[in-house]
Amino acid sequence: MTLRPHPPLPRLATAARARQRGLTLVELMVAMAISLLVTLAAIGALIVTRQGFTAVDASSQLRDNGRFTADLLQRLGGQAGYLNALYVMEDARLYGGDPIKVAGKASDPEASVMGVNNASWAKGTDFEWGKTATSESGSSDILVFRFLPSTEFTSSGKRQTGMIACDGNAIDDYVPKDMNDSAISVLYVAISNDSEPALMCAHGRSATNGGVDDAQPLIQGVENFQVLYGVDRVTPNTATVPATGDQEGKDDAVPDRYLRADQITVSGDTAATNANWRRVRSIRIGMVLRGPIGSAADSSVQTFYPFGTAKAGTGTVGSAFASASDAGTIFTPTPDGRLRQVVTFTIHLRNDQKHGL
Fold first, then answer.
1. Residue 207: exposure state from Cβ atoms within 10 A (0-12, 13-18, ≥19)
2. Backbone angles phi, psi at 348, to 5 degrees
């Protein structure tokens, strides 16, 4: 039996069989859908990673800013009230210069620590005349430090020894003209040139000796700056009664309450107000710092308490030292996707603020 070869397939059948090779339309659509899902997952993971990196970077920057501010203000608080005995007790003569006459201690010296509640500072002849009614950001407060720089004299001239202004720089070659010619540092919140809030620093001398210079931004992102003053035996808005007899034991230089700046003021009585300010023994600082837009994953409404939250277990919603009558101690910013952090610390004043009175 002889086998015959199969006759060749028609050309149309061969073309049809060739067209059947590859993916069908359904298979192609499924593959595209899977590829799209993988791409979207990769993009989502990249976005989440990027957001996490931004949040970590912003959080680290906020912590650094908070530590720097706390360290700087602690140092300024340690200087507050310092008196250079050379200018308080006797005449001082510069090498090759004129003598500086010190006419005894002042009867009502300026307080070394002062402030204004819910206000902003504007350049003027001195701190007392340079404050505006309201703060530009977050109902923040003004804090002022004064001290008499310690200057060491040598045969070759003069040099400053360890005293700084609020910008962190040393106060060089500061020779007081009299015992009231103090160095002044003013701290407050304002909107800086980049349209962001910042803790501002203005420093200089007393009004009769040049006044305070224009302010410069010190810490960017400080949105809220609150100050309370720990006072010893001061009744709000009331002149302090001098301690006599057994009351002297109560004057122990330990703060027994914290007051706002406006509670230390005695209306119409400058001498009583100054006396109350000289009884400040510590300063409680509360701040809210914010990061750049998009640094927080949560954009919901949040409430911050610059002076710290209440003790655990109290069952109360609120904050230590928070008061509805003190704007800024309960701070609810507009949700804007920014990471925020509260910084709270206390400055214990080293020097006697009474100046011997």
1. middle
2. -95, 120
Q: Say how far apart CA 278 and CA 273 lie, in whole Å.
A: 9
The single-letter DSSP state of residue 309 is B
pLDDT for 132: 82
Kindly tell me the sign of the dihedral angle through the C-alpha atoms of 149, 152, 155, 156: negative
For residue 75, count other CB atoms closer than 10 A to its CB: 16
| Rounded distance between C-alpha atoms, residue 183 and residue 165, angstroms | 8
Residues in the chain: 357
Distance, in Å, from the CA atom of 188 to the CA atom of 119, rounded to the nearest integer, reads 8
Low-confidence stretches of the chain (pLDDT beneath 50): 89-104, 313, 315, 317-318, 356-357
Provide the 10 A C-beta neighbour count for residue 297.
12
Q: What is the reported pLDDT for 20? A: 58
pLDDT of 90:
45
Asked if residue 257 lies in contact with residue 284, where contact means CB atoms within 8 angstroms, the answer is no
The SS3 of residue 101 is coil
What's the CA gap between 183 and 214, in Å, rounded? Answer: 15
Return d(Cα 10, Cα 214) in angstroms, integer: 97
Query: DSSP label at 335?
Result: P
pTM of model > 0.90? no
DSSP, residue by residue, 148-193: ---EEEETTEEEE-S-B-TTS-B-TT---SSTT--EEEEEEEEE-T
DSSP secondary structure letter of residue 281: E
Q: What distance, in Å, lies between the first and last C-alpha atoms of the chain?
A: 138
Instruction: Retrieve residue 74's tokens.
Output: 């602690």
